[in-house]
Amino acid sequence: MTLIILTPIFIGILKKFKANLRGYKGFSIFQVYYDYSKLFKKGRIRSSYSSFITNSGPIISLAAAITAAFMIPVIFSNGQTTFGSIFLIIFIIAIIKFFSTLIGLDCASTFGGMGSSRELFISMLVEPTMFITIMFLYFENKSLNIFSISFMNSGVSSYSIGHILAALSFFILILAENARLPIDNPETHLELTMIHEAMILDLSGTDLAFVELASQIKLMVFSTILINLFMPFGLATTLSAITLLKAIGFYIIKLLVILFMISIIETSMSKSRLFRVPELLSAAFSIAIAAISLNYFL
Which of 8, 103, 216, 297 is an S-S bond match for 32, by CB 3.0 to 4.6 Å? Predict the structure, then answer.
């Protein structure tokens, strides 16, 4: 629950990082809360061509994002939780993408259809790499439970080369799955370049707030998965005040490092052409294959 509530602050910190790297002050890190406050006060305007998809899609997307957030460890894991299958979490997160693409198509907008087709094109390339990365974790830990994997890796003092390569592959997937540069530019509203923004171009008011919040929670969920699967050092394994406080500190530091890395990429790179995206995701796939090979042979 804390992760969900603090998601707008982390997004505000990401925007603050980008503003500082560009040489200007930027908005307050609490600006995202103000934006949501304005959206919730506005009415919803919907296309006359839209159906029940546009009515229910935004709230279903937000529900899926919140469900996924409750199914991952953030600061504590004792390895004894029965739920937490990585595949189930990934499938729940995929609900957000599924309804986002349907919303883009449902409004009968040319730009919405373009954004939806591009989103599914990228998703088709992401899924094999995601599967290979998850398989690396299974081969390394003999488990698909995210709580068990984070618990087993929390006591590791050093990580193998294969583990580091798998983490790099997953980081590239975070950029692709969350419409970040160089895959997509989250700040643009140019119809010929945007993907995520094109799908939600016809949304307003609470519909837009629900979809945007779901997208931001999705980024935090993916970042938390990266933290607790590939670098869970400092994760609390016992319910004591000292270990929990340390775990909170470690988690915030690691999350800020990830957000800073994303901000560096987004301020130093431009958006790639759509047909250059397969090259980047092919590189991520090759890195994941190399990680499995190194883990198997070494």
Answer: 8
